[in-house]
Amino acid sequence: MRMSKTSNDILKLIEADASADVGSAFTALAAEYLEQTRDRGTRVSTAHTPQSLSERFDEPLPRNAHSIDSIIERLRTEVIPDSNHLYHPRYVGHQVSAPLPAAIWTEALTAALNQSVAVFEMSPVGTVLEHRVIRWMCELAGYGPSSGGTMTTGGTEAIFTALLAARGASMPDAWTDGVGADPPVLVCGEHAHYAVTRAAGELGLGMRSVLPIPSRNHTMDVAALRQTLESLQREKKRVMAVVATAGSTATGSFDDIAAIAAVCDGFGVWLHVDAAHGGSALLSSTHKHRMAGIERARSLAWDPHKMMLLPLQAGMVLVREERDIDAAFSQRAPYLFHAAEGERVWDQGTRSFLCSHRADVFKMWVALQRYGAEGLGALYDHLCEQACGMWREIGQRPDFEAMHEPQSNILCFRYVGDRSRNDQALDQLNRELRERYNKSGEGWITATNLDGRRVLRVTIMNPRTTADDLRAVLDGLARTARTL
Ligand SMILES: Cc1ncc(COP(=O)(O)O)c(C=O)c1O
């Protein structure tokens, strides 16, 4: 039903929409989705193409108001069914979570309050809570009282921020003068997330300045790192930072942070750890050993929207010395930032790329209050245990082959059938298999290239996923493969 659009009408609509009834209708819709996805018989994902979905929404700009009921109905019938159902127990695809319910419900309040954490005066409680949460996380990382950081939109921004701070330490004049013709080198594992090389491009170092270190068992070869730093030293080449990975994207493997930190200390090089995926191991008594040595890193990227199962978006960058990140953004904005010389800077805008800065901290604070750090650690263990269980199951099946033993909740494997095909044929088969299986709607997995082979990959980010679900995914894949 269309309505007229005088300002008076709109003001009435806004007041009507501000009621608990309308709010509850949206919440009820989300809860309906959470309920429906318990049914394993429902589709995990859509079979529609981008073209057919775009036809559904191919309509003129809505010039007049529609009833809230009609909009909710469209969300129910046109948006939810063909979205990816990350809450379905057999969605084991990308590293995006089935988010914690208490954090989901907090999102409405975050939007209602609409605080910008960039400046204390715009978000008094939000700013203080962000400092509180950052301090808790710094303590988990073993950082001392002079550490700090900020929440980010995710790992990509966290890595970019940390490397900007590293650039500031290595080239204090680069902010004003640029990096010049002979920029320093950035060293990272060959398995590093593309956000690292992207940052090198964005920071003006250029992709040519990135030196990848080969991997051994999908983690950085520390001996090769040492040799690389030695030869760079002989060539008198400056090194801006070494980036290690804790929970790599492809296999969820952890670099040996303590050994890498020892090498970096020996050369006086900034160590950044990309723990976007694996940082939450710090919450787990079983897995925190994988982060051993993290307190020696100068900076750390850690995404609560990954293994702390927060809804998008919630990232974090932590630095051992808060002044490093403050120095990185040496800008003044007198209309916003008012701290006097020597005063503690509460405004997070002084240490962030963002000006408007959403108070994602609210959902993080709620999740920590509701489930507790130990509860979230237990959840981390549970998700990793599911991946291990799947790995053991694959070990007992002749038609599949695991590519590695999981160190977290990610597992790469491939279908090998009766083992009569060569590697090229298996690459093609696994490529088609993933596509065909995902279209079936009974489950949803990802794929990657690993050690020169096309392989299947699962990431278990859903507390509902059970061993039976993972067995069903393997059965479904095998059934699909036999039709190819
Ligand atoms: C290891 C690693 N680092 C960084 C990122 C980028 O994080 P985001 O997507 O939050 O920007 C990812 C994303 O998957 C990742 O796996």
CATH homologous superfamily identity of the largest domain: Type I PLP-dependent aspartate aminotransferase-like (Major domain)
- Which structural category do the helix and sheet elements fall into? alpha/beta
Uncertain residue ranges? none
Q: Kindly report the CATH topology of the largest domain.
A: Aspartate Aminotransferase, domain 2
Sheet with the most strands?
7 strands, mixed
Beta-strand fraction estimate:
5-15%
What is the strand arrangement across the widest sheet?
A: 3-11-10-9-8-4-5
Please tell me what the overall shape is: globular
Outline the fold blueprint.
Layout: E1 2-3, H1 7-17, H2 20-36, H3 50-56, E2 65-66, H4 68-79, H5 101-113, H6 124-140, E3 148-152, H7 155-170, H8 174-177, E4 185-189, H9 194-202, E5 210-213, E6 215-216, E7 219-220, H10 222-234, E8 239-245, H11 257-267, E9 271-274, E10 299-302, E11 315-319, H12 322-328, H13 361-395, E12 400-402, E13 410-415, H14 423-440, E14 446-450, E15 453-459, H15 467-482
Parallel strand pairs: 4-5, 4-8, 8-9, 9-10
Antiparallel strand pairs: 1-2, 3-11, 6-7, 10-11, 12-13, 13-15, 14-15
Helix pairs in contact: 2-4, 5-13, 6-13, 7-9, 7-12, 10-11, 13-15, 14-15
The protein binds pyridoxal-5'-phosphate.
Written overview of the protein:
With 484 residues, the chain is of the alpha/beta class. The protein folds into three domains: 8-37 and 46-83; 116-358, Type I PLP-dependent aspartate aminotransferase-like (Major domain) (Aspartate Aminotransferase, domain 2); 372-482, Alpha-Beta Complex (Aspartate Aminotransferase, domain 1). The protein is built from 15 helices and 15 strands. The strands form four sheets. It has a seven-stranded mixed beta sheet, with helices on both faces. Strands 12-13-15-14 form a four-stranded antiparallel beta sheet. Helix 2 (20-36) packs parallel to helix 4, helix 7 (155-170) crosses helix 12 and helix 13 (361-395) packs across helix 15 (467-482). It binds pyridoxal-5'-phosphate. Pyridoxal-5'-phosphate is lined by residues 95, 154-156, 193, 195, 245, 247-249, 274, 276-277, 303, 315.
